[in-house]
Amino acid sequence: MWGLTDFKQVIVARTDLGMGKGKLAAQVAHASLGSAEECRRRSPEWYEDWKQQGQAKVVVKATGEEHLRELQKKARTLGLPNSLIQDAGLTQLEEGTTTCLGIGPAPSSLVDKVTGDLKLL
Amino acid sequence: MWGLTDFKQVIVARTDLGMGKGKLAAQVAHASLGSAEECRRRSPEWYEDWKQQGQAKVVVKATGEEHLRELQKKARTLGLPNSLIQDAGLTQLEEGTTTCLGIGPAPSSLVDKVTGDLKLL
Fold this sequence. Notes:
2 copies of one chain form a homodimer.
Chain A: E1 7-14, H1 21-42, H2 44-52, E2 57-62, H3 65-77, E3 82-86, E4 98-107, H4 108-115
Parallel strand pairs in A: 1-2
Antiparallel strand pairs in A: 1-4, 3-4
């Protein structure tokens, strides 16, 4: 019997912007939905498996814009669905500020190659 | 010429549980995705309009479980897509604890009938 593949989504959030709790949560939700939709289009079987397993979401910390972009590059290299969020600039931040990166849902072992060393927010 | 209908999603989060920032953000993302999927199934034209308009998401405060359930009742009465989240209980909270309620995407004027008097988180 084969082992089940374990799926998760990780959302990486910048901690250097001083976003308030509600702002941060909305940005994380943007990244989560954006990356989930990319997964649903490209790898619908991953998406369904993730949902069946309870759609695990984990939020971790990044130090700044460069960090997010490096992580996105790694995610792309591995072929993982991802979504980098830039703020619309209506409140708190300047327009175009990157805030969060969603990665997955995807097999946890692959996501960990990108975000495995990041700390929980 | 008709005015454009303005769409938004509101996520209501309990502030009485003392959730950490990352936990809170993950719960908000669950509610956002759950309610967005309900909208996509039931009212795909609302979903597409909301996305085209930049998928506005607003996070507001609720005082506790009863408050969330009252708001969900109102949302249902108005026929608005919604998703009440119960935590899986793996970290911080007891299994089954309600944490957040996602409402919409839906026309802002309808969402405001449910959440218009709640404060931003």
